[in-house]
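In practice, a research group might receive sequence data for several interacting partners and want a quick structural hypothesis before committing to experiments. The following worked case mirrors that situation: the sequences arrive first, and a predicted assembly follows.
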Amino acid sequence: MASEDSQDMSLTRVFWITLRRDLMLAYRRRNDLVSPLMFFLMVATLFPLGVSPEPQFLSQAAAGIVWVAALLATLLSMDSLFRSDFDDGSLEQMLLSPQPLALLVFAKICAHWMISGLPLTLMAPLLGVMLFLPEQGMSAMVISLLLGTPTLSLIGAIGAGLTVGLRKGGVLISLLVLPLYIPILIFGTGTVQAASAGLPVGGYLAILGAILALGVVLAPIAVAAGLRISVSD
Amino acid sequence: MLVVARLRLRRLFVYNALIYTVKKEWRWLTAVNSQRKVLLILTTPLLEVKDLFCERDERVLFEGLNFSLNPGEIIQVEGPNGSGKTTLLRILSGLSQAFEGDILFNNRPISDNRDEFLAALLYFGHLPGVKATLTPEENLNWYCALHPHTRTEGITTALSNVGLFGYEDVPCHSLSAGQNRRVSLARLYLSDAPLWILDEPFTAIDKRGVARKEALIAKHAEQGGSVILTTHHELAIHDNLRKVSLGQPVEAI
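A structural hypothesis for the assembly, expressed as tokens:
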């Protein structure tokens, strides 16, 4: 019993330490953090200039623009998730640790979400205002992003894990991962559009939540298996 | 009536005979098993490699490779560049699965007792596994969290042992290549793992550093640990040292 307790302790500890390490790494390389956020902001700024600045049109397109921009910004940052660990050998040490690899991977994905998905979600209301999103759609957008962006990170990590051994994995990640992103995009924009039209959004959010729950449980295992394959040759 | 009774009798007899044989077999089996257990404890090699075959890019790196590593032994893997030394160490540590043959740890295949094997392993690879933006202390802290059988409180001592006293809080990107390797080598002082797999541990390390690492490896072997290493450097250790050569036909060692 005591040993079980201490094992639980060490699992929680290794989770927090890995999470803190990744956050610290990101904090020390702040410049890399800005680029997905800048991309997110750029899309929302340039879109009205390129298509039409009409409030009528923009308020209809806002949900889609914000969600597509968030999705692509996450995809941009995905390649770096395991890249530096692979290059400097930290990944080998993770694979050779007696701690469960899926747990370490989950900690890394959590850290990745905190430095990409969470800032995007927090910035989204600003973009909503810029794009004339109806007021009643605002909270739905934030909640849908809050449920959707972690799933984007989890699914993207599967692609990152599988392609980290390749020299140029960036393009391949997009090919692998984009089809899996589509349901989240559909239900995410669906939530915002329904809320803007004054319709109930419970069903959309429930589905986003269900996908997230599925991802939290299964994605780390898939990523761990992908990493073992990538490192093995 | 008579027929039925006879049939029953016969069935009873058959059953009894069956039970008797099963019991006998069982007793025999358990006796053999307990004997085998005693033998295992007496002579079990820590790591045993049987008939290992590896091919890379349609070139056979080694085939029919057999050796065993007993507690207290050091094995130096030798061979020219490209002869598969690193590949062998990666296979032994379980990183690479591109091989045929058996690798036994404590007489069981590694895939069966992976957790036990990983808990007993310290792997030092080509890449030091040191994050450039973290300080040596932070790097080792994370390593200690990954490996339960390490002593977090010994980090400062370990760093001063590898000659990095005063560099605890300097980010690793401002350290030299050799110092970065030393950060990674500090793990040797922290770990209680009995099995060390070291791939070119002396690369970029100065002469004094090499002498100290050699002494450390010799001490580890004296205390019952086992080491497999590759190096092009002539080791000053002679006790318990065996050599495995790659790149030429390998006989059973």
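Before designing any experiment, note the following. The CA atoms of residues 18 and 107 of chain A lie 6 Å apart. The first helix of chain A runs from residue 2 to 28.
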